[in-house]
Amino acid sequence: GSKLEPQPLDALSMGRMLAGRALENEIVQIIRAMLPGQVCETGRAQRELHHTELPFRAHPDGRITSDSGDALLEVKPASAATFKRYAERGLPEHYQDQVKAQMGLAGINTAILVLASRENLGQMQVFEIPFEPVRFALLEERAARGALHLAQRTLPEGEPERGFCATCPMASTCSALKAQRSVGESGEIPA
Predict the structure, then answer these.
(1) Can you tell me the distance from the alpha carbon of 37 to that of 66, in angstroms, rounded to the nearest whole number?
(2) Where would I find the beta strands (DSSP E) of 48-168?
(3) Burial 60-73, CB ≥16 within 10 A → b, else e
């Protein structure tokens, strides 16, 4: 299998994905209890956001309504170690990009990302993330490049700086990852 022709999830991976979804739903219910009447578009009523021109979709975990304006809700369960690291150092770029894309597609200027420890659901950290139009435009460009490569049945150049190369089935042949590794080994930046 490859990114162009993905294989179905094995039973263990499917089980982890379903457990993660169930945990997200439990966290949303806790948030709903904390904000009575303000949390909507969750669970089966979850919104699917679509880009008007690109095959670019998103599914925020909900929407929080208030007199000062709506915010998208995104929930991230994390291991205790990951929770501690993100709570202390801030969220990784890909979490922020996910909610910035959701905001751009929804036309909403704020997102609330709730990070929760899987081991202790009472341990939560709330991050308010503002919409950034310039970042959304860059995410649209990435989506457009991805759509073009899908149409051409080719793979886009890797993005080793985003940290996902270890799980990519094309990592062994990716020129971008090879270049990054050679810089790390030699300490010299290629011309």
Answers:
(1) 10
(2) 49-50, 57-58, 62-64, 71-78, 110-117, 120-130
(3) bbbbbeeeeebbbb
Check residue 173 and give its pLDDT.
75
For the ranges 74-88, 109-123, 137-151, 152-166, the lowest mean pLDDT is seen at: 152-166
Helix 133-152 / helix 93-106 crossing angle, nearest 10 deg:
90
Half-sphere exposure of 76 (CA within 13 A, CB side): 22
> Encoding tokens for residue 91?
């969220």
52-58 long-range Cβ contacts below 8 angstroms, 24+ apart: 54/140, 54/143, 54/144, 54/147, 55/143, 55/147, 55/150, 56/101, 56/105, 56/140, 56/143, 56/147, 57/105, 58/98, 58/101, 58/102, 58/105, 58/106
The β-bridge relationship of strands 57-58 and 62-64 is unpaired
Residue found under tokens 């929930």: 75
Beta bridge partners of 136: none
Count other Cβ atoms within 10 Å, centred on residue 183.
12
Which amino acid is residue 40, in one-letter code?
A: C
Residues 148 and 142: their CA atoms lie apart, in Å, by: 10
Tell me: the pLDDT tens digits for 15-30?
A: 877 887 889 999 999 9
Percent of the chain topping pLDDT 90: 55
